[in-house]
Each structure stands twice: as structure tokens, then as C-alpha cells.
Design a protein that fits this description.
With 439 residues, this protein is α+β, with helices and mostly antiparallel strands. 29% of the residues lie in helices and 24% in strands. The chain binds iron/sulfur cluster.
Length: 439
Amino acid sequence: MTAPAPDTLRRGACPSLSAPMQTGDGLLVRLRPAAPALTADDMLVLADLSRRHGNGLIEITARGNLQLRGLTEASVPRLAEGLAVAGIVPQTGVAIEIPPLSGIDSSEAADAAPVAEALRKAIAAASLTLAPKLAIVIDGGGVLSLAGMAADIRLDAVEVGWRLSVGGDRRTARPVAILAEDRVIAGTMTAIAALAAIGPAARGRDLDVGALAAELGAASELTLSDAPASHPLGIHRVGGENVLGVAPAYGQMQADRLVALVKGLVACGAREFRLAPHRTLLVRGLSGESLADAEACAGREGVWCTDTAPGRSISICAGAAGCASAGFDTHAAADVLVADGRDLLDGSVDVHISGCPKGCAHPASAAVTLCGTVAGVGLVLDGRAGDAPAAVLPVDDLTPAIRRLGTLLRAQRKEGETARNFLDRTAPAALVSAYQGKR
Ligand code: SF4
């Protein structure tokens, strides 16, 4: 069976198999396998397909999706066929996120997977027109809860059911109602139908929380844990087993290295792989004795496996190495930042290095963005890649400019101060001057 040619992606939509996104290095396809776990063979198939039908560059996104790059109109249908032959079924419809260890983490308050499945079916049956980037989080808690993941609509497991809230992460979302298990799908569908009634671009922030609460029965006061979620990178004890979180440097990996990584981890005992937020791949099946070997294998393939890896808070796109739209080498700039600007990389702020204003790697705002423009590399503070830069330098001046920013942070950051606190109390003009090399 021949898959149909892909449609052109409409603006703001997600680049799925049926609607890949045009980037400077060809078409980009984002996919999330419907199955929560991938076998080693699945991983090897994905690497092979990315090499045969794209340019072999594989990315894991901040939300734990896979991206294959460098595809063409002709090769996308062949990728779809290859996935079908391998039995890897991409998720379709509204993005519903659940903790990556749902159903196997004995410390979770509830298993989010069946709720997600039922909600997915209910949304499909309702045939509503919803915003292309609508995000739903169903957080059952546990070691790798999604407490910090923002969503238009979220459900958090509580003792008496699920708390429905809108427009934020667990701490910031506005609570609507507590839904008992037998009302959770109907109650959540009420909120989703309200979004559809507002219009095809409506997001969680647009909902009238008061009206919804009145309809669903207002949320009684309920204090949810505001403990920060663990970072998926590193070793986790889940029940009686070890789970190792590894992340390709800056979320990107060539297919050949992925193959070497998977084979090396399998030799250490790995038997299952799960995509996770923060560009992470969770590895199951490792014994306590094999963890050190698995970490060494990850290190050999340029993969991070500790949650203190300084590059973990940098989002970069393919850059000049893989995308014709890029104005500079984003990898090289990130390496300079890791070497000379570690004070910025304590995990308290997002840093974005984007080859062009499209900002593929981090559509949201970041504390610091370096962005390729026609005039050079722009510095954007607390903004998106497409925002007007506070200063622009020729590409050749970028490395010393990053080093000057690093020197400023080292000299002026107080003992114990986070990068976020430092940026909050520092005048943007000081950062711009350092970037430009002005006193
Ligand atoms: S943001 Fe990066 S990957 Fe996306 S189009 Fe621009 S240069 Fe290419």
C-alpha cells in the first residue's frame, strides 16, 4: 500500500507524518510512538529509517517526541510505510502527555495511561476543532511526574480522583474542579468542548474558569504537592528496578551513534526504551552492576546521563551543520557556552541557540536566545527567537561575545545565586554591553 503524499503544514500546527514541516534541511516529521515502550529493534529501525529517508539526524524534543529531519515529499510516505512495516504506530490527534513511567512506577498516585486512552477516544468521537498545539497533561505523579509541564488542560491525581485545572503547570494552572474517577472523562470533555466553542485557536488561558467550575462543581480547596519533579536524566530507583535516563547532547544524535548507543546498552542488559521530557530516553533492564558500564557506553557516544550536565538547559536547532536556513553553527556556539558560560547553565533558566528566527528547537520564550539573522547573530533577552534582538553581532564575533557574557556572570554572580536570580537583578543593558564588547 502506498501512503498518500504529505500535506503542507499549516502555520502553528505540529509537524506530523501527514503534515511535515518545511525547514532549511528539508521536511521535519515529529512523531510519538503510541506504545509507551520501544524495544531495541524499534530503536534500530527508527535509526535506519531516519538514515534512509532523511538526513540521519534524530532529535528528542523537550516534551519527549522524536523528530526526524531532512526528509522530502517523496521520502515521507516511504518513512510512513517503514514505520507501519515495523509496527511502530505514531500517536495522532490531540497531544496528551502522561509521565513516562506511568503504570510501572509504584510511587505514582494513579496510572494516567488508561485515563489518557479514554480521553483520546472521547475527543476523537466528539469531532471537535481544537487548536493545533493544544496540550493536555494527565499527571498521575510518581518519580517522574509532569508537575512542571505546562498544559492548556491538566489533570492531577489526588486522593479522591483528579483535579482539573487549566492554563499552566501544576503550580500555576487555575483549578476548576475535583473530578471523581467516574466523572473524569465527562468533566474534562466539558472543558474541551468549551474550548472548541470559543474557536479553533482557543487555548486553556481563554477558558472562563468560573463558568466551568459552576458547571462541574467548584474545586474544594486542595493543596497539591509543589515538590519539583525529578529531572529524567540520571539513575532512578523505581520499585525494585533501575531506570537510567540518558539524553543525546542538546537533544540531537546522528543515526549511526544511536545505533552504537542502543547496541552498547543492550550489551549492558537494556531491554526497553521510553521517550521522556527534557529530551531524555529512559532505559530499563539494567542491573545495579551494569549501570556503570551503561553510563560509560553513553559517555562514549556523546550522550549525557547526569542531571547536572551543563548543556541540559540549552535548546539548539540543527544549525548550519544540518539546515540551510541557519546563520551559524549552533552546536559550536553551545559548546563555547558550556565551556565558558557555565554560570548561565545551572538549570534555572532556558537558553536557546537558534540558527534562524523560526526557532524550531524552542518555540517558547527563553531567558537568553542567540539567533541567526541576516545581519549576524542576535541576542534576545526573555523572548522568542523571532523577537527583535537587543543586539546583533557578525557571526565571526560570536565566540568572544559568549566568552564575555561568561566572564560577566563569573565576576558578578553572588555565592549561591541562581542564573535566574542574577538575570532578574541585572540590567539588560549590562548583558548587551558584554555581548557587544563595550565597557
Ligand atoms: S530554527 Fe534552525 S532548524 Fe529551524 S529552520 Fe531555522 S535554522 Fe533551520
